[in-house]
Structures are given as structure tokens and as C-alpha cells.
Amino acid sequence: MDDIKNKRIAILAPVAWRTPPRAYGAWETVASNITEGLVARGWKNVTLFATKESETKAKLVGWVEKGYEEDKSQIPLVSTCLHISKVMERADDFDLIHNNFDYLPLTYLPLIKTPMLTTIHGFSDPDILRVYHDHKDTYYVSISDSDRDPGLPYMATVYNGIDLSNLTFSDKPGNKLVHYGRIHNDKGTHLSIEVAKKCGMDLIIAGLIQDQAYFDNLIKPHLNQSSIQYIGPVNPVARDALLKEAYAVIHLNLIPERFGLVMAESMAAGVPVIAMDLGSCREVIADKQTGYLVNSVDDAVKAVKIIDKIDRKKCRQQVEENFTIDKMVSGYEKVYEEIFRR
Amino acid sequence: MDDIKNKRIAILAPVAWRTPPRAYGAWETVASNITEGLVARGWKNVTLFATKESETKAKLVGWVEKGYEEDKSQIPLVSTCLHISKVMERADDFDLIHNNFDYLPLTYLPLIKTPMLTTIHGFSDPDILRVYHDHKDTYYVSISDSDRDPGLPYMATVYNGIDLSNLTFSDKPGNKLVHYGRIHNDKGTHLSIEVAKKCGMDLIIAGLIQDQAYFDNLIKPHLNQSSIQYIGPVNPVARDALLKEAYAVIHLNLIPERFGLVMAESMAAGVPVIAMDLGSCREVIADKQTGYLVNSVDDAVKAVKIIDKIDRKKCRQQVEENFTIDKMVSGYEKVYEEIFRR
Known about the structure:
globular; alpha/beta; 6-stranded parallel β-sheet
């Protein structure tokens, strides 16, 4: 195992945001956690391919100055293809490329000799399966058992690991409901407002507005200075403060969750999560132990009323046992090892 | 030279539309003309990479069934990257890849051994220059002297060639003004309406609506059943009928033209063109001989009034001497030959 830690690993992060991101940027967060986790566990030759202003204890190779979401003068595909091609041009310098940047890198695969592991962070559209199905002789990891395409050969599910240093456990519940993450219909932000109103509780909404029309039409009209607030995106420090105020996190996603970093983060702070029973939610939440899986707003309202039955220590424990960076990286180590053995 | 015609050439067409396109699809049209032109001139090993439903006398290799503009279930980038990667995977089977599909193919270039010639059909955004500037040790052709980036090493300008078989010369002027091509602010469709009104002449507008809001706001309000008509996109047969009705073609482009197929087509039918003096217009039109280069609507109105001074035979001649498929292909043959000599 020590021998394997000398292998030359390239971690390919997206270039939408800095790695790690300042606020939003789920895939960059995971790519950062994998990179830093490998270094922490003694891997000696890890190279992170990310934006030039990224930060890492591994070797950083960047081609694009800033993330294209942070510098709108860039055409995303221009930055994306340049970034990816720089890894591919140097493929021979590595024993393994670990791709965290979606499907485009797969199309360079037949031209390089180095094996590539792709973590599929989500299928943004069914059509992207055409690329995956065209590349079945490579290595895939899913981020939950539920987020799998039946036509693909997966090596394993490796759950995302989160950085607990920015998530302070508190045994004392706050007195507000909290909804955070991307503000989008898919995440059911508007349903959290319904729940709060029906429960007669305050609600804090935080996160990046991903669909401005959705926000303007379904969220903004309900906002006020007191009972229903929107506080914008939160960085890890602000998130920690936010979760201290949380009685429960409401996460009524309307499409299957792929993993659900928000749920793991909330539980890490000791906050129980009420989530729609769709996709990976039942893999992340231990139903009735660290939160409740529900199927409707009314179920969620009932769940809020019995949330004090949840042991907040159990929430933290669920994360410590399953969703730490160390747990994730040891999962990837097993996968890497198997690839090197083949 | 006969020896060179045994070389294995891959022509990479875009997959937005069928090659050749049914109606609109400028780059696919050129890619088709190059392919068929090479075959006509005796090249024996030409392979066209295009949509599967494309038509060619060369060998056809397709991966994508239909163009992504004709089948909106496709994510354009998915079809694009799969299509490009299929050429790259087979690069060793060819002596030259002739890329007519923009900048993305360049990023695969360091991974293949086969030389690639890229015809730059246009810079859709200044940001795409980042990819070109990152790949200066390859071969470029411009489609006009004016559409060149000063930082790139070009081998030659090769003007687009058009298929004259669908363009019937008529010495007899029609009695209407005609504007056709993409309906977009860049093409100055709204200015052709101003010209027609000021001249008191009828106007027929044809072409694909590329910007619906532009059409709805600036074009639609002026349409009626008689003096100002919009007839939709035209295929080559309908275009031929359209040009028969033309007294002159009005082409008051607001951004520099890259080449201007519309101008060459019009002149081929014997129709003089009044064009804005921007970009390649002065390379395609012989000013005062095959049309007029202008700088304003008022100039264009004046030009309409003296358009009968233009010899329509001269218009046709301008195209026959400079913008035929044969002329274009012989231009590319010289470029290919130089690449093989290096």
C-alpha cells in the first residue's frame, strides 16, 4: 500500500470555479477534498489540474486563470477544452488520471495510454449518456448507489466526503428552519417556504440563485425582513453560523438527489434533515435516526413536529462514519489499487 | 500531382446540419463542396466525416444520425465531441485531416500524428482565439484576407466556392429588392426594409430566423402581403427562383463579413449586390462593377438608383473566375501539396 502512494495521480477538477470554491462549486469542492485527502494520507505525487488561482498542498497545474463562472468574459467551452487538453497532453506523466469534470475528457481517452477513472458527479441531461455509453472500457465511480445508469460498468460507489473542520457540531437546536443550496425548482426552495408557513416557523434561505425567474416568481414574493429571509450564498464560515440557527434543514428536492452535500453538511453540524425520498436521500439520511424521508409538504410539516425525537449526536455520527474526506479518500484508494492491479 | 491525389484525406464537417444542408448550414455547405470538388478533380481517398444522413460521392463516416439543429433532443456539445473524437481515433488512417468544424478539434491535435489543416470559417467570439493562439504549430486557411487574426500563421486565403449548378444566370433584372441569409441584426435585415421603403420598391426577405426577438421587434411589424414579404428559409431551388425576381440584393451587414456566400450566389445569378463596406465585402464584390460598397442606408438608396449601370454578365463572370468550387478546391490542393512537402 505504501508503494502505491508513490503513483503519479492527476486529479482533474472543473474550471467553473476556483478549487476549492469560495462559495458554490460542488464538483470543485469534491475534487479539492480528494486531492487534499490523498496528500494527507501520504500520497507523494498528486497533481491537481484546476484554475491557476486554486489552492492545494498537491502540485497545482493550471491553464485557465479564473473559473468561467467567476469571469464571464470566458466562453465556458473554450476554457473547458483547453483545460482538459492540457491534462491529456501530459497523460504520459501520470499513472492515473482521476476525472471529476464530466463527459468531455472521455472523448480524448482513446488517444492516451494512461488509465482514467471518472467520478460521475451527475447526469445533467439524459443525452450525455451517449458519451458514457460510447466509452465502456474505462473506469467509473458513482457518488451514490441510486445515481447509476444501468448501462455503465461501475467499479464502486464512493460517497462524497466533506470537510468537518468548518462544520461545528452543536447539540442545541436553533429555532429556525433552514433551506440552503442552489436556489432552483429542482431543490424545492419554494416548498421549504410552504413548510415554514404551515409550521408557523421562521425560515432562512441561503445559496446561489441558479434560476433567476424561479427566484423572482416563486421565492421573492414571500420574503420579508423577519420570518422568511434570503441571505445569499454562504461560504463555509457563514454556513457554520447558519446551521447554528437551524432547528431542521428542509430539503424537499423535486428530482432525485445524486448525493446531497447539503444533507451531509447539515447532519455534521448536528442538524436533522427533512428530505424528499428521491434518489440518494435515503443513502445519506438514516430515516427516523438522522432526519425524515418524506413524500410531500404535509409529511414534511409532520416531520418538523417530531424532529425533537432525533438525536443530534447521531446526525454527527452518521457523517463521521460515512461521509468524511478520509472515508471518501480511502474509498478511492481501494479503487485506484484495483485499477493498478488490472 | 497525380500521386498526391492518392493521399488519404479526411474532411471534417460540422454536425449542426446534414452535409450538404437542406437549407441553411454555411460550413456544411463548404465542407460538402470541398469534398465533392476533390472527388471531381480525381482525388481517390477522400472520407467525409459528417452526420450519418449526409450525402457524398466520397466515403462517408458518420457517428451522429442527424444534425443537432435538426434534432433538438441532442445536446450540441455531446454530438460535437463524439463526432470529432471519431475522426481523431482514426487519425492514423489519414494523411491529412481537413478541419471545417471550428476550434474544438485543435485540442486533440497534440495527441495525434496526422497533420491537420483548419479552415477558419469565422471567429464567433474573440475568446475562441485562446484556442487558436494555443495551437500555432498547425495549418490554417482563412476564407478572406480581411477575416484574419494577426497572431495566427496562415498558409493562404482560399475563398469559398459555390455550386453554380443551382444558380441560373439571368441577364434580365427582376423588379424587387431581395435580402436573404440569416435573419439577424448582424446581417442588417432591418436596414434592407429601410432601403426598400426609401426606394419605394418591393422587398422579399428570405432565410432562417436566427434571432427571434430581433425578427419579432424589427422585421415582423413591417411585413405585409405585398410590398414587404418574408418567405422563410430557401433551399437552392427556391433561392434560384428568388434571385430571378431580384433587381438587386441588399446586404447591409453591420459586422465585418467573413466571406459572404450570399453575395457570391447573388452575383452568380447575375444579380448585383449592394453591401456594407465591412470585412470581406470588398474582396467578393468588385465595387462599381458587380455591385456597390456603401457605408449607410442613404448610400444604399443612391446605389439602387444607379444599379442599372452594372453589367449583370460581369457579376456572373466575377463568380466564375473567383468563387467556383473548382477554384476553391484547386486552392486547397495547393495548400495540401505544401503541407505534404513539409
